Amino acid sequence: MTPTARSRGRSPVQARTRETATGLVLSAPLALVVTVLFAVPLVLALWMSLNDWPLLGEPAFTGGDNYAAAVDEDLFTGAVWFTLKYTAFTTAILIPVSLAMALLVQRPRRLTGFVRTAFFQPAVVGLAAASLLWYVIYSNEVSPLGSLLRTVGIGDGSIDWLGTPGSALWSTILMITWRFAGFYMLILLTGLQAIPDEVYEAARVDGAGWWRTLRSVTLPLLRPTLALALVLCVTGSVLAFEQFMLLTSGGPSNSTVTVVMAVYREAFTLLDLGVAAAMSVLVTAVLVAGNVIQLSVLRKGDD
Amino acid sequence: MVTVHDPGTGRTRRRAAAAASAAAAAVLALAGCGGAEGGGGATGQTLTMWTRAATEVQTQRFIDEYNKLGRNTVELRVIPNDTYLQQIATAAGGGNLPDILGADVVYAQQFIDQGFFADITDRVEGLEYADRLAPAHVDVATSGDAVYGVPHTLDLSVLFYNRVLYEEAGLDPDEPPESLEELAEHAARIQELGGGVSGSYFEGRCPGCILFTLWPSVWAEGGDVLNDDGTAARLDSAEMEEVFGVYRGMVEDGLIPESAKQENGSTWISAFEDGDIGVTPMPSTFLSRFEEGPDLDIGVAPIPGVDGGESTFVGGDIVGLSSTTEKTEAAWDFVSWTLRKDTQLSVLGGHSDVMARVDLSDEEAVAGDERLAVFDSLVPKGRTPKSVAFGPTFNDPQGPWLTLARGAVYGPDLRAALETNDPKVDESLGGGA
């Protein structure tokens, strides 16, 4: 948008002042909400992370001690690596699967509406409820999954879904893919439908095949939407909690403890609020930095 | 007030309710004026009490009886077991602790250390039956010379066995195992019955359940698990290795169902209730929750050591006054009332629950209850471990104990699992204080 287009009919200065005032008024409620619910707690957490903070009694300033304790905590550092691994695997699986599903239902055909709804269904189940559901599915005692797989020739009817570090991780990723693929499909679908048909027609006229069209037309034009999906997926995975809390409780042998679980343990089991706040601040800093990098890389070349 | 019963006039009813609560407030204020020291009178108060779900049944019974007396009104809030600590911590941080606070015995020291409980040493010592309270509970409610709580409900670990399966397997249902070795033999005999029946059970993913059922065997052998001040553990001791060895053997021999490896405590009770488990240690409070029938006839016995002896883990909850309550007199009125002889007999003993006093098991009201007699006989012999860092070390699934226990039972090498993890437990016990 150019200044001339915006200021039609009024002097530019007048219009700009008016616009500024309206903008301030309109954004005030949101600014208030963000301040109360985000900025203030963030500052409090920062302050808390610099103090020894008992549940009852007065806090005492300890400087960087809590940060030293946080990075010295084996469970926390282990959780950082595990969370990064989980985030990488989840994102690498979830986004392509969602994209494939979105491409499948992109054009209206027979049953498209039905398939779209079916794909989206798991996303309306709460994450905690979904985790409990899959906890039962993975239980050899009551679940039909083992015998179902046996009849198609996989396994002997009792697969140890959550018993080893590897199986616990992949079983959780499978559950998360089921739960979230439909959601990211929906996001990507909105991006796909914003791509004008003319572009596809032009590609067809130029003789581009399916693969070429996907690579040279769809993906480049989908980049802003993909960026959004990636940021949501990475952030969500880094903050993973319910799925592991309910499916594995961090086990076996603490092999599936995520960062948020480590923070939770520090705060609510060890009751050490200062160190827990320090851990939270570190996670927040990493997340912000990660998002900035991700967005700047993905937006490069967008004008 | 005459129109209160008229269902058509909501406004009148609201007004009446407002009048009633104003009157109640006036009564409370008067009671407050005439009250003794320590803030608030001994009667006419409304008290809040929190307890975890595990003791809801017993605590509610206490409160129902007490509220009938018209002295004070106690309002109970029950919190799920798994989130009790979190809720208390949040409430303490916000200055919202209740007047009366229950605590799982293994968390008692942590609660005291955090300053949640008021010092009630003089009050407890002033009770005429002070020396007859369950000793293990009094010990964990004591820090230094100060007492912060009294026994509230007792939950002992005892052997439960299904007499029906014993008979089917040709075992004598009146002769429960007297050693862990014998328990494994019985389990093997029962396992042979087939048809989905398992000889024994193990709570493979529930750290609190494992220690509750397994440590008594170590104690029965004469071994110790923690040192006196709860700052170090002896999990690599010969006794601990022998006890784990029996469970490990039962897993290797297939006497424990495969699914037990994932047991996090939530299906513990149903596995036995289906009548498919032969003999296993469980909490005494489960007894009143089981529905016995043609497939389930329960016998109880003390938990033995590997070669004999007997002991129990005296679990359950203590109760104390929160450090922030202003209704000290009234709160103590309730707490001390729960420990009186008549109350104990009617509220606990009469419902086959273990009593918080050790001098009442011969009373007429509870005579003839054989299973309760087994429980009561164990109270003086049992132990309750005492450590500030008990919760994060042992009860928390992310603590080092669960890793040790799983390694010992399911891992490649029992000795190595104990030796590798014992120092981590020590570190957690020392570092968490």
UniProtKB/TrEMBL annotation, chain A:
Entry-linked Gene3D superfamilies: MetI-like (1.10.3720.10)
The entry's keywords: Cell membrane, Membrane, Transmembrane, Transmembrane helix, Transport
Annotated InterPro entries: MetI-like, MetI-like_sf, UgpAE/MalFG_permease
Residue ranges of domain ABC transmembrane type-1 in the record: 80-294
Location(s), subcellular: Cell membrane
Tree of life domain: Bacteria
Signal peptide: none
Transmembrane segments: 21-47, 86-105, 117-137, 168-189, 225-247, 267-290
SUPFAM superfamilies to which the protein is assigned, alphabetical: MetI-like
Membrane topology: Multi-pass membrane protein
Entry's family note: Belongs to the binding-protein-dependent transport system permease family.
Protein name: Sugar ABC transporter permease
From TrEMBL, chain B:
CDD domains in the record: PBP2_TMBP_like (cd13585)
UniProt signal peptide: 1-31
Keyword tags: Signal
Matching InterPro entries: Bact_solute-bd_prot1 (IPR050490), SBP (IPR006059)
Name of one Pfam family that matches: SBP_bac_8
Designated name of the protein: Sugar ABC transporter substrate-binding protein
Organism: Streptomonospora halophila
